[in-house]
Write a structure and sequence with these properties.
15 strands
C-alpha cells in the first residue's frame, strides 16, 4: 500500500482546499511554493468550466496564490481532451462560456448549430431557453450528449445558483437521454490530468474536500486520497460513506513539511 512519503505527483481540488471565497486557506501558498521549489509535478483541478486556465490563474494570483495556467486542469479541458480522443476534428453545439469554447477550439473542434456530433453542456451564468431548446432538438436528431460536470448548483454572492447538472437534468427530462459526464466524480478527469503531467496512479495523491466527488473519484482512479476539513465535509458527512480516504487532515497546512504528518483522528 502506498504511503504518503512515496507520493511523487499531486492533484488537488481548488475551492475548499486552497481557497475559500477568494481567500487563500492556511498553508496553501506555502504548499504550492514547496511543490514548485522541489520540481514536484502537480495540477490544481476544478469542475468549473466557465473560466480558462489563464483566467483562473489570474484569479488565484489576486488571492495571493501563484498557480501557473499550465498547472490548472478544468472539467472543460478534460471534456475537450476526451472528445478529441473520441472524434478528432468533430463538431459540437455548446452551452457554456469561454472556458469551454476555448478548450474545444484548441482541441480542434468546430462549433456549429447544424448537425453537430455532440451537444456539450457546461457552466454558464446566462442559460438561454432558446439554446436549451436547440440542444434538445439536436439531441433528438441524433447528436450525442456530453456534460462537463454533474454539479447541480454553484456558488454566487447571493447564494446557490443552478449549474451544469441542473440544466443537463432539464434536457434529460425533455429528451429521455442521460449525458456522459466527464468531470468529477468521473475518474476520467483524474486520468486525463495524470496524463498531462506524466503521472502514474501508484505514486499520485489527490487532495479534496468532498467525499462524493474528490475522494470517490480518487479511489476509483487508484490514487492516494487525502480529505481536508476546510471545505464542505465534516465528521458526520465522512461517516455516511462506505469508503474512506487514506488520510483525513485538518487542512493543507499539515502538508507543508518534509516530515510525514500523522493523520488527524476522526
Amino acid at each position: 500500500m502506498t504511503r504518503r512519503d512515496e507520493i511523487e505527483c499531486w492533484l488537488t481540488d481548488m475551492d475548499g482546499v486552497l481557497v475559500h471565497e477568494n481567500s487563500p486557506l492556511p498553508g496553501a501558498a506555502e504548499l504550492l511554493q514547496q511543490w514548485s521549489d522541489a520540481g514536484t509535478p502537480f495540477l490544481v483541478l476544478t469542475n468549473n468550466s466557465i473560466f480558462t486556465p489563464r483566467d483562473l490563474s489570474a484569479r488565484l494570483r489576486a488571492s495571493g496564490l501563484n498557480v501557473p495556467e499550465e498547472r490548472i486542469w478544468t472539467s472543460a479541458l478534460a471534456t475537450a481532451d476526451f472528445l478529441k480522443s473520441q472524434m478528432p476534428g468533430g463538431t459540437a453545439f455548446v452551452i457554456g462560456e469561454v472556458g469551454l469554447t476555448t478548450a474545444l477550439h484548441e482541441a480542434g473542434f468546430i462549433m456549429t448549430e447544424t448537425n453537430p456530433d455532440y451537444v456539450v453542456v457546461g457552466e454558464t451564468r446566462n442559460y438561454s431557453f432558446e439554446a436549451i431548446t436547440k440542444a434538445i432538438r439536436l439531441l433528438l436528431a441524433g447528436a450525442r450528449f456530453i456534460a462537463t460536470n454533474p454539479d447541480a448548483t454553484g456558488p454566487s454572492a447571493d447564494g446557490p445558483m443552478p449549474a451544469t447538472g441542473a440544466i443537463a437534468a432539464l434536457i434529460s427530462k425533455a429528451t429521455g437521454m442521460e449525458p456522459y459526464v466527464v468531470g468529477k466524480p468521473n475518474p476520467m478527469m483524474f486520468r486525463s490530468a495524470m496524463n498531462k503531467i506524466g503521472a502514474h496512479s501508484e505514486n499520485t495523491a489527490m487532495i479534496g474536500d468532498r467525499m462524493d466527488t474528490d475522494i470517490v473519484a480518487g479511489i476509483e482512479a487508484g490514487l492516494y486520497t487525502l480529505l481536508v476539513m476546510t471545505g464542505i465535509s465534516d465528521e458526520a458527512e465522512v461517516s455516511r460513506y462506505p469508503f474512506r480516504p487514506d488520510e483525513i487532515i485538518s487542512g493543507v497546512d499539515k502538508l507543508v513539511s518534509l516530515e510525514p504528518v500523522e493523520s488527524d483522528e476522526i
